[in-house]
Specification:
Helix content: 25-40%
Number of domains: 1
Strand order of the largest sheet: 1-2-4-3-5-8-6-7
Distance between the termini: 29 Å
Low-confidence stretches: none
Structural class: alpha/beta
CATH topology: Aminopeptidase
CATH class: Alpha Beta
Order of helices and strands: EEEHHHHEHEEHEEH
Mean pLDDT: 94
Oligomer: single chain
Largest sheet: 8 strands, mixed
Length: 276
């Protein structure tokens, strides 16, 4: 690997790990689980939606451009972990057990069964098919991410996760929070894994840009691998969600000049996180 050239040192069909330093020079890993629009053919053929309906669903459910908004971590010497399959196929950020996953009540557990407006997304999923989907897409992803965290802990004694997302400017029908007065930035936290000092530093950076921030609204929580969740406080995590109208046209999916501004803000956030 040439000095300073990003190295994609793990590439499978469903995720990609990108870094300039496989030795994890800084203890920061950015998680981008919902930026892809790729649907594997075997999954697509089991769905109820026609192509037009699918494109409409992808437009509202994809965290557009978050793989670019958050890729500055590679410049800093950290690690970027990106899901390369649409969340509509299998969502690696949900709990694999629907009884633990609040969004399963909306048909949006690890294996989605319904659309954003409550229509059937796919034909009924048998227990065997659900197991196959989790074994193919969910469990390898979760293990690989946990292994990245393990390498960082071994080197630095701590690991900081930035969970990168976006959200629509108006509530979608499936969302639990239906209030219209949405902040421009949402920070999701965990009682064990999110230091208050980290939240305050991100809030200050956003406020300096005139961006209203709310905590755990409209979405709550942040990603921590189940291997470490609620058991290892050396793993720190915060979710950062950017309101989509700040950087794209939500009706067409086309990026706007705001994308560069948001990327620079996120880069500043990541520089702060290095020291947490």
């Amino acid at each position: 690997m040439a000095d300073g050239v990003p190295c994609k040192f793990w590439l499978l069909m469903n995720f990609e790990i990108i870094t300039r330093d496989t030795a994890c020079r800084i203890p920061l890993v950015v998680h981008v689980p919902h930026s892809s629009t790729i649907i594997p053919p075997d999954i697509r053929q089991a769905w109820c939606l026609d192509d037009h309906e699918l494109q409409r669903e992808l437009l509202c459910m994809t965290d557009w451009y978050t793989d670019r908004l958050f890729d500055g971590v590679v410049e800093l010497g950290g690690t970027l972990f990106v899901n390369r399959v649409s969340r509509l196929a299998v969502d690696p950020e949900r709990f694999p057990d629907d009884s633990q996953e609040v969004m399963a009540t909306k048909g949006m557990g690890a294996v989605y069964t319904h659309t954003a407006d409550g229509r059937a997304l796919r034909h009924p999923v048998s227990p065997e098919e659900r197991t196959r989907l989790l074994d193919t897409y969910f469990h390898p992803y979760a293990k690989a991410f946990a292994d990245v965290v393990a390498r960082i802990l071994d080197r630095h004694g701590r690991c900081v996760i930035l969970d990168g997302h976006s959200f629509s400017s108006a509530p979608l029908p499936y969302e639990l929070d239906q209030r219209n007065d949405r902040p421009k930035i949402c920070l999701g936290t965990d009682d064990v894994h999110t230091p208050e000092s980290l939240v305050r530093s991100i809030q200050a950076l956003c406020a300096a840009q005139g961006l209203r921030v709310e905590q755990n609204r409209p979405f709550a929580g942040t990603y921590v691998p189940l291997r470490y969740w609620r058991t290892d406080p050396r793993v720190r995590s915060v979710m950062m969600e950017i309101r989509r109208d700040l950087y794209m046209d939500e009706q067409t999916g086309v990026e706007t000049p705001g994308l560069l501004r948001m990327r620079e803000l996120i880069l500043s956030v990541m520089q702060q996180m290095e020291t947490v």
